[in-house]
Design goal:
alpha+beta, Alpha-Beta Plaits, globular
Length: 130
């Protein structure tokens, strides 16, 4: 079975919950789907690429705390002012340049979800350059 062919796990082919984790990789199925889309468009997944994670913090101070902690894990992080339509939401942008592996995605998503929970923020996902 290939890396991205694990999106059904029951004999009756009932779809899995995208928030569940792949038993073999520990990565959420929604993140595997994104990795699959990147793999379809990228020439070589073994090459380093720009990867960005997003969180929404309830204040600038909390955003800065999250950014500082992300920095201790090797991410360049900054806080953006709220958009007019979301006045109480400071976006924390955490960037790195790395090879996109299931282990990196699993560990990074776990890190940012934990940061969001600890600081009463929202983890908003990730993207990567193709």
């Amino acid at each position: 079975m290939g890396l991205f062919s694990m999106f059904t796990r029951r004999r009756d082919d009932e779809p899995v919950d995208l928030d569940e984790r792949s038993p073999s990789l520990g990565v959420r199925y929604r993140d595997l789907l994104l990795m699959n889309e990147i793999a379809k468009r990228a020439a070589d997944l073994s090459q380093p690429r720009h990867v960005v994670f997003y969180l929404d913090a309830p204040s600038e101070d909390i955003g800065r705390l999250i950014a500082a902690e992300a920095g201790t894990h090797g991410f360049e992080a900054g806080v953006r002012e709220p958009l007019p339509e979301y006045p109480g939401s400071w976006t924390v942008v955490c960037e790195t340049h790395t090879v996109l592996t299931p282990e990196f995605v699993r560990d990074s998503v776990d890190l940012f979800e934990a940061l969001a929970e600890r600081h009463h923020a929202d983890y908003d996902g990730w993207e990567a350059a193709v």
